[in-house]
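=== RUN LOG ===
request id: a7f3
mode: sequence -> structure
chains: 1
length: 122
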Amino acid sequence: MNFLDRISLSGLRAYGYHGVLPAEREQGQEFIADAVLFLDTSAAAAADDLSRTVDYAAMAGCLSEIISGEPVALIETLAQRLATACLADPKVRHVEITVHKPDAPVGVPVRDVSVTIRRDRT
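=== RESULT ===
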């Protein structure tokens, strides 16, 4: 049985303008994302070769650009965009994305609002 390895990017912070309320689109807020990439890293480890695995610095930059980029209404949509970007790397077989919106305007005090999605390469 082959198991996949995990590369985790946790707590990636970027400022974005996502939300359904006009104030969210105008003022923006910080979003936090976690990405867990599932892949086989054995070839990279054996060769000690970055080109055989995911460059997590490059991936973090890509995900940050998406969060800071074109606004969407739902963090579910933002999570899907992040998952799609991760799966664009052919080495990534599965991905789990969590988008946190700690300053979500929900009308009562909350520490965090988040959405987690899991996507597979199709």
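=== NOTES ===
The mean pLDDT is 96.
The helical segments are 22-27, 42-47, 56-68, 75-87.
=== END ===
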